[in-house]
């Protein structure tokens, strides 16, 4: 059993760091920060109006709202995800909450610490996208992640899934919140790795969610759990690689994404850190 409160890397057999149990900041008030964020998310749920697809989806039977810069799912170009006027108002209020902003900063800091090459790649590509299309807006100041999702609960327990639309070698930052006994439930299961990780409220874990099958252990009936995630869609980087146009348009001009595929994967792996290079 791997406890998710203290920081530690996920390292492959070659010594490559491919994820991180970032844990919590060394801040005696962090418990209060996490409580405020979780409470505010759960209260905000009552102000939202969820479509059937937002209320129940392949990741689980709980309501969620996604926002941010994205490309995929029928979008004709990179754009800001659209939500209803009401839900957009709620999301904007959530994004301005001081406690939630601290969660985002910690997720970004953890990515920069454990995978600085990947962090720089995210930062550079978001900057290129915004330069090409000035209508694009990040969810949070200083965040390199393109998208974010609020999983409102009160019983956020994910089914076994991958987030296949995310960047294949990219990392998703997940923060668990609310009131549950992390010794008995809420664990993160990484099925491919045969790992079951204790995931207490307030802790953050970063994984390549596009390629690792993952889910959560059920929590007790009298408990509540919600979560906050940050990630970047793979389509964002493909849009940049295709010179800010669709793959179809790129290939019509002589580009070859199939040839670039293996090169992109190799380049992606080169962004990950080696554990031996960390100074302990």
UniProtKB/TrEMBL annotation:
Q: Which domain of life is it from?
A: Eukaryota
Gene3D superfamilies per UniProt: 3.60.130.30
Q: What is this protein called?
A: 2OGFeDO JBP1/TET oxygenase domain-containing protein
Q: Which organism is it from?
A: Laetiporus sulphureus 93-53
Give the taxonomic lineage as stored in the record.
Eukaryota, Fungi, Dikarya, Basidiomycota, Agaricomycotina
């Amino acid at each position: 059993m791997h406890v998710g409160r203290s920081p530690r890397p996920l390292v492959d057999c070659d010594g490559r760091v491919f994820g991180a149990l970032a844990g919590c900041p060394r801040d005696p008030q962090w418990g209060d920060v996490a409580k405020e964020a979780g409470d505010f998310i759960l209260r905000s749920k009552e102000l939202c109006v969820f479509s059937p697809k937002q209320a129940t989806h392949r990741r689980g039977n709980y309501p969620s709202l996604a926002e941010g810069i994205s490309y995929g799912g029928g979008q004709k170009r990179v754009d800001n995800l659209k939500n209803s006027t009401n839900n957009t108002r709620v999301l904007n209020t959530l994004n301005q909450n001081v406690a939630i902003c601290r969660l985002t900063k910690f997720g970004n800091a953890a990515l920069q610490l454990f995978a600085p090459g990947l962090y720089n790649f995210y930062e550079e590509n978001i900057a290129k996208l915004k330069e090409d299309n000035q209508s694009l807006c990040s969810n949070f100041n200083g965040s390199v992640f393109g998208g974010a999702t609020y999983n409102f609960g009160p019983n956020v327990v994910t089914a076994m899934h991958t987030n296949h639309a995310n960047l294949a070698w990219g990392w998703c930052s997940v923060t668990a919140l609310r009131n549950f006994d992390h010794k008995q439930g809420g664990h993160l299961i990484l099925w491919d790795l045969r790992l079951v990780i204790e995931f207490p409220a307030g802790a953050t874990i970063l994984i390549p969610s596009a390629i690792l099958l993952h889910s959560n252990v059920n929590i007790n009936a009298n408990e509540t759990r919600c979560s906050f995630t940050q990630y970047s869609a793979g389509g964002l980087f493909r849009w940049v690689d295709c010179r800010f146009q669709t793959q179809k348009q790129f290939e019509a001009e002589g580009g070859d994404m199939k040839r670039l595929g293996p090169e992109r994967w190799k380049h992606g792996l080169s962004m990950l850190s080696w554990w031996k290079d960390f100074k302990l």
